[in-house]
């Protein structure tokens, strides 16, 4: 029994010696399988620790009623710092010094000049978004022809969920370089416009009263600031009115405006107010063909 135990210990010792035996050398530091495994676990542990610390900070800030966008920014920045420190420790364990990193950085700069501009630009833009916070998680924004709610700001890209439950991946650099319309930046209310054209000869005061009446009964329409109606223009085929009102449900804005348009159509039909369609007069000129006689 003792011989068997001793043989097992000898085998274990030989395996440890094999793992600890240097296989190559970097800057005077001898690397073994064991040191490489340790470096790998340092990196893995840094990701795990970063996640735990980030979530803990997020919960602590949530208990203090800190804005969700601020919490997310601090959480992500903390994760990046912890992961970076873990990677540096891992490299130091493998004998990769700061001077070596500087040399590698110079090589990477050449690579960036040839094909990594977009990746670097989006990464830096993501850091700026987390610090400056012109756009934050939960905002309802419009970028180009895309509109939706920001659900996550990552290192390289930002995820936007549309009202059709589609997810759009927008490069971070696009949010800084292009015009971005934020519907919720200044608050959770927004003023909307509904333009309506009525036939010439309609009672202007009556039309304005009916348009304002169409807003009654909609809980998403705010009483303060008050709604208004403006006789905007004499159109080609109609008198143009602009119904303006404040709404508290930015996300459901399309549905709210659709409901109001239905009520406008019903009220106009009941009061015999005509919504004209564009009309054009077509004049056809006819002329006799030219007849050439050849003699």
How is this fold's topology laid out?
Layout: H1 2-20, E1 22-26, E2 29-32, H2 33-63, H3 68-93, H4 98-114, H5 117-132, E3 140-143, E4 146-153, E5 157-161, E6 167-171, H6 172-177, E7 180-182, E8 190-198, H7 204-213, E9 228-234, E10 239-247, H8 253-270
Antiparallel strand pairs: 1-2, 3-4, 3-7, 4-5, 5-6, 8-10, 9-10
Helix pairs in contact: 2-3
* Range of strand content: 15-25%
First and last CA, distance? 134 Å
The helix tally amounts to 8
Mean pLDDT: 79
Report the order of strands and helices. Answer: HEEHHHHEEEEHEEHEEH
Name the CATH architecture of the largest domain: Orthogonal Bundle
List the domain count as a whole number. 3
Pairing-aware structural class of the strands and helices?
alpha+beta
- Bulk shape: elongated
How many beta-strand segments?
Answer: 10
3D structure, described in words:
The chain has 295 residues and is of the alpha+beta class. The chain has 3 domains: 12-115, Helix Hairpins, CATH 1.10.287; 135-182, SH3 type barrels, CATH 2.30.30.60; 190-270, Alpha-Beta Plaits. It contains 8 helices and 10 strands. The protein has helices spanning 2-20, 33-63, 68-93, 98-114, 117-132, 172-177, 204-213, 253-270, and strands at 22-26, 29-32, 140-143, 146-153, 157-161, 167-171, 180-182, 190-198, 228-234, 239-247. The strands form 3 sheets. It has a 5-stranded antiparallel sheet with strand order 6-5-4-3-7. Strands 8-10-9 form a 3-stranded antiparallel sheet, with helices on one face. The chain has a two-stranded antiparallel sheet with strand order 1-2. Helix 2 (33-63) runs antiparallel to helix 3 (68-93). The longest helix has 31 residues, at 33-63. It starts with a helix and ends in a 25-residue tail after the last helix.
